Fold this protein.
Amino acid sequence: MAGLLASRDTRVLLVKGNLIQALPPDDHGRARVAYLTPPEPLPEGVGLYLGSSGGLDYVGLVVDGGDLEGPSQDVDWVSLREVGGHLGERDVAVVASATALAVWHGEARFCPSCGAPTRVVHAGWVRRCTAEAKELFPRMDPAVIVAVTDHADRLLLARAQHFGPGRYSVLAGFVDAGESLEAAVRREVGEEVGLELGRVSYLGSQSWPFPRSLMCAFEAQARGTDLTLDTEELAEAHWFTRAEFAAAIADGSVHVAPRSAIARSQIERWYGRALDLP
């Protein structure tokens, strides 16, 4: 790690919890990750090796805070939610890994078995108990996210209680202990909107570091259309035809997830084309 942090072929990303540093958008509105390049001054922090691409190594540096030293441009602390839709695939992967690891390091400083302090080993991917030598690995919480359609191929979109006005998405929830992914899909949809599902098909997955989820995406067809909402979870839910969805996007009454979210690709898959939105 010391060698990487001294190499001109290393790009260093400062991380604070689930926040990273980004430069102001360029002339095309694209956000840019504020990488530091040695020998620029670097603050003290926990080093995380994030991989290599195009002859460059990428390292996250978990810091307590403070201002970025070195570049003349202003920078902001931002989350992947804020800028993910404007970043390239490589930067999204770097930021996702860095923030997921940073949050885990903040929560794993003591051994859950004996309470002794842990120390960082294996380039930030393991913490080892200083008393028992027990190794702790980053935790991932599996969750399912499902695009539900009815017999007329309408899409179900819902607004969670913690969402702002007009923000809708497909249904999602965490997988319970002892549960398969498909069983979690059926349970979550039944609990949240009271629908029984027929066909359930797997689509793909995405790391979602808020703080450490693995989103497993599905599509499913409902056997009915009458909704019974869990009002502790959802504020509202509606069926949309493609024409109704297009009109709602156009007039601003519906806002969907950014490009960086797998929910966006699920919605676009149903819609039949990409949305001209960040």
